[in-house]
Specification:
This protein has 6 helices and 17 strands. The chain is α/β, with parallel strands linked by helices and 302 residues long. The chain is elongated, with a radius of gyration of 21 Å.
Length: 302
């Protein structure tokens, strides 16, 4: 029996572990793959308070070591099912069944990828899924954004103030994002549009140098770019909780800033919940909130 079980060892989950241990609660963290989450793929973090420059891997390692030093038990097993038994919550993995008084779901989300050759190897070397994270590295350079929703539109607007030129590529003839944002995009002289088109190939040596864009008629254009920002959606890691936890239509856990789910004693933290801003700093903030709320919940049980 643990006081708090945390599923996910990304920044949100590990921060929750730190706060829970500082409240003298026994903590189990379950992680399917490796600690750190998506941040480990970021070569240089510039927007986290205090740490002006730190790699994602180093950041994740420091948080992991801090949680371990405080006494959090971290086990690398994938949670495949959760159960709610009132004052007890069960987490089932392929190997074990764990029981806790409270549960924090911090599984995060993954970027939806284009599925192109070299895409994974070029992350941090010309390919990015976060304009606010990496845009500053492309100041005065040529970039492209692929996508048609609000995230892609906002990324293009953000990058237009930094980059020499921004090419916005969308597979349809109109955008799904807000019309007001589209109007603002069209006022920017350094934003160019490619409709009815898909990015079909990444060209690179050590870094991305160009992309191939294919339109609906099969015509191929080679576009020289220093960076490609992919904004075609995210996939929250909530499939194994869907039987119990209320999700929105996109699969995110419905939870506000207090990180409560629809079930008492089960909380959520990080990129897998409904929220406006998904950044490293908001993930760690969620972890602190979720752990604090879980501690309050346990105190109310006694």
């Amino acid at each position: 029996m643990f006081d708090i079980i945390i599923i996910g060892a990304g920044p949100a989950g590990l921060t929750a572990a730190i706060y829970a241990r500082r409240a003298a609660k026994s903590v189990l963290v379950l992680e399917a793959t490796a600690y750190g989450g998506q941040i480990i793929n970021t070569p240089d973090i510039e927007n986290y308070p205090v740490a002006a420059h730190i790699s994602g891997f180093d950041f994740a390692t420091k948080v992991y070591e801090q949680a371990k030093a405080l006494g959090a038990e971290i086990v690398f097993e994938k949670a495949v099912e959760i159960e709610d038994h009132g004052t007890e919550k069960a987490v089932i993995t392929a190997k074990n069944r764990y029981i806790g008084k409270a549960l924090i779901l911090a599984t995060g989300s993954e970027n939806r990828k284009l599925g192109l050759e070299k895409e994974d190897s070029l992350v941090g070397r010309g390919v990015s899924y976060c304009a606010t994270c990496d845009g500053a590295f492309y100041r005065g350079k040529k970039v492209a954004v692929v996508g048609g929703g609000n995230t892609a539109l906002e990324d293009a607007l953000y990058l237009a103030d930094l980059a020499e030129s921004v090419t916005l590529i969308h597979r349809r003839d109109s955008f799904r994002g807000e019309e007001g944002t589209v109007a603002r995009l069209k006022e920017k002289p350094n934003i160019h549009f490619m409709y009815n088109s898909n990015v079909t190939k990444l060209l690179a040596e050590k870094r991305l140098t160009a992309i191939e864009v294919t339109d609906r008629n099969g015509a191929v254009t080679e576009l020289a770019v220093d960076g490609l920002f992919i904004a075609v959606g995210r996939i929250p890691e909530n499939q194994n909780f869907a039987a119990l936890i209320r999700l929105d239509e996109a699969g995110y856990i419905q939870a506000g800033e207090n990180c409560h789910t629809n079930l008492p004693g089960i909380f959520t933290a990080g990129d897998n919940r409904t929220k406006e801003v998904r950044q490293l700093v908001t993930a760690t903030a969620d972890g602190a909130v979720a752990a604090t709320e879980a501690v309050k919940y346990i105190a109310a049980l006694s």
